[in-house]
C-alpha cells in the first residue's frame, strides 16, 4: 500500500513537472507582435549613436537564437529586461554550427524571431537561404557600410579582429612576424603553432585569403601549416588558448578574446595577443543580427530590439564586456587593444564570406579539418 | 469469444502466438528508426559523382580505419578490464565486495568528455600532477589517448552485463565441473564462459557502438574519426555530406550488429543458486583491491577532485551568466526519468519477444533499436529538428516531448539488451507451471514473468537514466527554449573557460547518477536473496 502511494505521488509530481514545462513553453510562444510598425517606435537610430532613452520601450516576448555564448551576450539581455518591465527574452544557445544547421533545417518554421551570431559568414548564409528580412532603413543607415550587408539584410553588432595569441615566456611581440604567410614557413613555429579549423571565423579567414591572395597561395599556406609546421588542430578556442598559457603550445591563431578570458582570470598568465598587418591574418569580422522572415514572427519587436543593440548603450556594452570594436561611428573603442587604424585590417566585403564551398573543398583536400 | 480464440491461438501455436507482440515490436522499431529516413533523404541530395568521390576518398578511408581501430581497441580493452572485474566481485572472497562493485561501475556516470578533460589536466603534460611531482608526464592525446579515455569510462557496460550474468547463473555447475577433475581454467572455459558469453557480447556491443559514435573525446584528443568528419561537414554547413557520412557509419554499425548477433547467440542460460564455492584470493586480494582502487582514483576521484578545486579556488572568470539554479537539476532528472520510463515501455515488448521467439523478424526489430545508439546525437537531433519544425510545430521547442523521444531513440538498446537477457534467464518451466494452473498468458506474464525480469527492467531503465543525464548535443538542439539542464550549464560554462560555474552542476550530475548506479547494483543483489 505504502509503495503504491509513493509511486502515485511520484508519478503525480512528474506529471506536474511535465505540465509546468509544457505550460511555460506554451505561454512563451503565444503573444502577438506588440508593435504595428517596422519603423522606429520613437527616435530613429543614427550613426552618431542615440541613447536607449530616446528609443521606444520594448515589450512582449522576443525569441532569440544566439550562437554567441551566454557570458558575451546575456548581460545585455538582462539589462534590457531589467529596464523594461513588460519585456522578456526567450534565449536559446548552441554552438554556432549546430545552431545554423538547425535554423536552416527549420526554415520559415523557426520559432526564433531574431538570429544573433558570431560571424558574418553565418549571417550571409541565412540571407542566401532567403530567411532574413530586410532591416529597417534607419538601422541600415546608422551602421558603417563595411560592417553590414550591402543589401541591408543583416547588420554587425560588434567587431573583432583575428589575432596571434602567443606565450610571453617564449616570444616577445617584436619577434613575431606581421605577415600571416610567415607563420606557415618560419621553422621557429614548427610543432608549437595551432589553429582551430572548426570555427566560423577560421573559415572566413580562409575565404578572405582565397579572395585576397588567390587559391594557390592559400592552398600552400594550409598544406605548409599541416605538413611542415605540424600545426595542432583544436576543436575549442578555450582549449587552444589554454595550451598557449600553460606552455604546451606557444603560438595560436584565433580570436583575441580567448586570451582575454585567461588574463581576466589570472593576470599573470603568460599569454598576450599581437596582430598581422593588412592581410587575412587580421581579418575584421562582426558578430551580428538578422531579423528572421516567416509566419508567426515579431519583426517589429525584433527591429526595435536591434535598434537597442546599435544604440550607444548597446555598443558600449560590447566594448566594455567583450573587448570588441563598435560598429557605429558615434561610439569609440576604449580598451587595451590597438585601434582598428593601428591594426589596419584588410578591406573586405563580408558578404563574400557566405560562399563556403571553395574554402571547404580546399580544407578537406589538404586535410585541415 | 474473440479473446477465447486469441487464447487458443496463443496456447496452440506456441511461437506464432506472439504475433501481436511482433506487430507491436515492429511499430516500435519503425518509430525509433524513423529519423534514419531524414538521413537517407538528405544523403540522396548529394550529387552522385561528388558523393562517390567523397565516400572513396583517401581521407574517408583513413578515418574509417581509425574509427574501426578505435572501436576494436576500446572494445577489447573493455572486455579485458570488465570481465575480470566482474569475476572478482562476484566469485571470489574479495573483502568489501559491495564497495568494490560500486567503484568498478561508477566511471559510467562521468560524461567521457568531462572525464577526458579532467584526466588530461591531472595526468597529462603540464597537468596538476606534473606540477606537484615535478616530473614530466606523458602527453596523453591522439589515438591511444582516445582509446584510453573512452575505455576507462565505458568498460562498466561490460562489467555490469557480465556481473549480472554471473550472479544469475547456476554456480553449482562450476563445482560439478571441478569434482569431475576439471581445473579452474578448464571449468571457466567449458562451463562459465559459455554461460556468460552472451552477456559479455551484449556489454561489448554497447561499448563498441559508444566508441564509434562518441565525438567529444576524440575531438578533445585531436583524433580524426568518423564523427569528427561528420561534425566538420555540419560546421561547413554541408548537411548532405554529413548525412552521407552518417550512412557509412550506419553501414559499419550494421556489420557490428550482425557480428554480435552471431557471437552473442544465446543458448538458453540456466539460472540457479549463485552461491557456489568461492575462489579464494589469498594474498592476491591486495593487488586486486589495489587495482580496483587505482581505477577508481583515476576515473572518479580525480575528476571530482578537479571539480572541487575549480569550485573552491574559483577557477575561471566571473560572470552572472552561468549561475546555478536548483531547477536545472530538476529539469535534468525529470527528462532522464521520463526517458527511462518510455524506453522501458518500448523495450519490454521488443526485448521480451526477441528472447522468446526464434523468428528472424523479432531479432531484426531488436537489432534495429540499436541503430540510434551508434549515430552521433547531433544527427538524431537534427533529424528531429526537421520533423518537429515541419510537422509538429505546436510542440516543437515548446514541450519536452521531442527531446524525450530523441533520448529514447539514442538510448533504447540499453534497456532492450537488459530486458532481453533477463527474459532469457527465466525458467520456461515456471511459465508452464502457471499455465497448468489455468493462468492466462497475460496473468502469467504479470504474476510470474514480470516479477522475475523486474531487475532487468530496472537495470535497463537506470542505464537510460544515466546516459540521458549526460547527453548534450540533442539536448541543446531540442530542449524547450529557455530551459537549462545540468549538462547545458556545464557546456556553457566549461566551453567559455568559466570553470567554477561548471563545477557545481558537474558534481551534482555525478552525485545523482552515482546514486542511481547504487540503486541498480542493490537491485541486482537483492534479486539473489
From TrEMBL, chain B:
Membrane topology field: Multi-pass membrane protein
Family membership noted in the UniProt record: Belongs to the binding-protein-dependent transport system permease family.
GO biological process, one term: transmembrane transport
Superkingdom classification of source: Archaea
Domain ABC transmembrane type-1 per the UniProt entry, residue ranges: 64-260, 329-520
One Pfam family, short name: BPD_transp_1
Keyword Transmembrane: yes
Protein name: Iron ABC transporter permease
Compartments where found: Cell inner membrane; Cell membrane
The keyword Transport is annotated on this UniProt entry: yes
TM spans (from-to): 20-40, 60-87, 99-123, 143-160, 199-221, 241-259, 290-312, 332-355, 367-388, 394-412, 448-469, 501-521
Keywords: Cell inner membrane, Cell membrane, Membrane, Transmembrane, Transmembrane helix, Transport
GO cellular component, one term: plasma membrane
